[in-house]
Design a protein that fits this description.
Blueprint lengths: L15 H5 L7 H6 L4 H6 L4 H11 L11 H6 L10 E6 L9 H7 L1 H15 L3 E6 L4 H16 L15 E6 L9 H8 L23 E5 H5 L1 H7 L1 H7 L7 E8 L5 E6 L4 H8 L9 E5 L8 E2 H4 L6 H6 L8 E6 L4 H15 L5 H18 L6 H13 L7 H15 L1 H10 L34
Parallel strand pairs: 1-2, 1-4, 2-3, 5-9
Antiparallel strand pairs: 5-6, 7-8, 7-9
Helix pairs in contact: 4-7, 4-12, 6-7, 6-8, 11-12, 16-17, 16-19, 17-18, 17-19, 18-19
Length: about 450
């Protein structure tokens, strides 16, 4: 049973990962044997306001990236009136370096559905949409099968769990757009429109999906709800650190011996994740830098990592962010120009184009970095990159602008000496062979002759 781990040290407890690693946990029979839906049954007897108060007390933060307090977000939803209320579960998971939500959907979908029941009760929602990135075919199949099982058992659908109320859960595939991880762009896409962010206010809690009150939360955030009510919100808050309650799934990738998804308490030291769980930097190399919260997080130099703890407030105070907990390790033999080029290309390619500072700024940052990578850079380009990034920041409808600007600016500032030496050398990065400047052509085409030994790119 899930509650039997309470007396274990916090660093050794596991919740979601203890479920999704078990065989056949995606089936209703096995999930119920492990305690699935027991907390939903208990919570449905509580007043919605008391449910929200408990989630506030747990210090559960939004685990998709923004880290906004979950209970506070729910409290913004107005009392139930004539309009429908909706819950939208963000399963788009497009942040580079992040690969956690798919394990929940594929391995323990009934835990997610139980969390959906709890959240919908709190915000008076009768319908929930799970917006899944289109590439996640197997997780969508598992989710759909779990919903069918839950409906057949009376856990969802008409008179769900004997409440006399209706609760419908719909799986909706996305189309691979990074911008649709932003909650209002996701809502636009869900309505069948082009996935572009909305101006706010009004915020989704007041006017969201189909212009009705809507809460958008990440898969992991919703899936932790049953554990919060099982162990108590105070205990969940206690297990966390510095205003971030409980646990989270941390996607560790890059140059480590054991990349993977690790479930650890909020506030776990960054170097503990890398060395104890990840086995240290691969091939016996040294650590150069770490991106602590997905590609959009400003980078940390190796000497900063010793003081870093993986919670929202600590990393914010260090000038970076916990984001989606996509921890990307970079060894000391990786040229920073290559990291910078791939980052700039990604954000240029994924910009929705709605806001001029983002659309044009990401393009110019990419062009300048590509020129540096091709051996044609100028020292003043580094100052120009910082200037362009600063002009993007705060001048766009959504946070995509900051997501594109912050990492580039951090690379240019923290690794200025290395980048300046590369520019002065006139060398060409091999990574540049996979990029081009044709704005009208598809990205990352291998142009004829490019990438072949001894052949320089004709770009």
């Amino acid at each position: 049973m899930r509650g039997e781990r309470t007396e274990m040290p916090a660093s050794e407890q596991r919740f979601l990962s203890a479920l999704y690693t078990q065989e056949k946990m995606h089936t209703l029979k096995v999930a119920r044997q492990a305690g699935a839906y027991a907390q939903a049954e208990r919570v449905l007897k509580m007043e919605p306001a008391d449910v929200i108060a408990a989630v506030k007390a747990s210090n559960l933060r939004g685990l998709g990236g923004a880290g906004f307090p979950t209970g506070m977000k729910w409290s913004f939803v107005p009392p139930k009136g004539d309009r429908m209320h909706y819950l939208v579960v963000n399963a788009d998971e497009g942040e580079p370096g992040t690969c956690k939500d798919k394990h929940i959907m594929r391995g323990c979908p009934h835990t997610l559905l139980e969390g959906i029941i709890i959240a919908c009760h709190a915000i008076h929602a009768e319908k929930a949409y799970i917006y899944v990135r289109g590439e996640y075919v197997r997780p969508m199949e598992r989710l759909s099968a779990a919903i069918d099982e839950a409906c057949a058992a009376g856990l969802l659908g008409e008179n769900h769990m004997g409440t006399g109320r209706r609760l419908v859960v719909v799986v909706h595939p996305g189309a691979g757009a990074y911008i649709c991880g932003e909650e209002t762009a996701l809502i636009e896409s869900l309505e069948g429109k082009k996935g572009q962010p909305r101006n706010r206010p009004p915020f989704p809690a007041i006017e969201g999906l189909f212009r009705c009150p809507t809460v958008v939360n990440n898969v992991e955030t919703i899936a932790y709800l049953p554990f919060i009510f099982e162990h108590g919100p105070e205990k969940w808050s206690e297990w966390g650190h510095n205003g971030s309650g409980g646990y989270r799934l941390m996607s560790l990738s890059g140059h480590v011996e054991r990349p993977g998804v690790y479930e650890l308490p909020m506030g776990t030291p960054l170097m503990e994740l890398i060395e104890k769980h990840g086995g240290g930097v691969w091939k016996g190399r040294g650590l150069k830098a770490v991106i602590p919260g997905g590609l959009s997080a400003p980078i940390l130099r190796a000497e900063e990592c010793a003081d870093a703890r993986l919670d929202f407030n600590t990393l914010r105070d260090m000038g970076t962010m916990a984001g989606s907990a996509g921890v990307i390790v970079i060894d000391d033999q990786t040229p920073m120009i290559d990291v910078m080029l791939n980052c700039a290309h990604f954000y240029h390619d994924e910009s929705c184009g709605q806001c001029t500072p983002c659309r044009e700024g990401t393009w110019w940052m990419y062009r300048i970095i590509l020129r540096i990578a091709q051996g044609r850079g100028r020292l003043r380009d580094l100052d120009e990159l910082v200037r362009i990034a600063s002009n993007i920041e705060g001048n766009t409808i959504c946070a995509f602008g900051e997501a594109a600007a912050w990492p580039i600016r951090s690379y240019a500032r923290k690794f200025r000496d290395e980048l300046a030496a590369f520019i002065e050398s006139g060398e060409r990065s091999r990574e540049a062979d996979w990029h081009h400047e044709d704005r009208g052509a598809p990205p990352l085409i291998q142009i004829e002759g490019v990438g072949m030994p001894g052949v320089r790119a004709g770009v």
